[in-house]
Amino acid sequence: MTDSDIKQAMKAIATVTGLKLTDERIERDLPAYKNYLAAIETIARVELPINAEPLPVVVLPADRRS
Fold first, then answer.
1. Fewer beta carbons within 10 Å, N or C terminal of the chain?
2. CA 65, CA 18: separation in Å to the nearest integer?
3. 15 φ, ψ (degrees, to nearest 5)
4. Separation between Cα atoms, residue 26 and residue 33, nearest integer Å
5. What is the pTM of this model?
6. Of 19, 39, 28, the residue nearest 7 (C-alpha)
7. Radius of gyration for the alpha carbons in the chain, expressed in angstroms and rounded
8. In the chain, domain spans
9. Handedness of CA 41, 43, 47, 52 (dihedral sign)
10. Measured between alpha carbons, how far is 31 from 9 in angstroms, rounded to an integer?
11. pLDDT of 47-63, one tens digit each?
């Protein structure tokens, strides 16, 4: 994705979530967002067996346990 594509995506996400991002804010946040996207790509490249996936753990407060 080009910087322009990423900026458009940031604006679209902001609009959908009801945030108002200025062009200045988008410029300032662009490097961090690009690092975020790069981290997602890096994580996605790692192939793990299904049994290596973390299991969700739910802990109920003491007064909710049966």
1. C
2. 38
3. -65, -45
4. 9
5. 0.63
6. 28
7. 19
8. 3-47
9. negative
10. 14
11. 878 777 777 888 888 76
Q: Read out DSSP for 6-34?
A: HHHHHHHHHHHHT----HHHHHHHHHHHH
Query: Measured between alpha carbons, how far is residue 11 from residues 3, 29, 33, 62 in Å?
Result: 12, 12, 12, 43
Residue with tokens 């003491």: 62
| pLDDT per position as a tens digit, 1-59 | 899 999 999 999 999 999 988 999 999 999 999 999 999 999 889 887 877 777 788 88
Using the structure block, give the residue that is written with the tokens 């996936």: 53
Locate tokens 């049966």: which residue? 66
Q: Are 52 and 24 in contact (CB under 8 A)?
A: no
> For residue 32, how far is the Cα from the chain centroid?
11
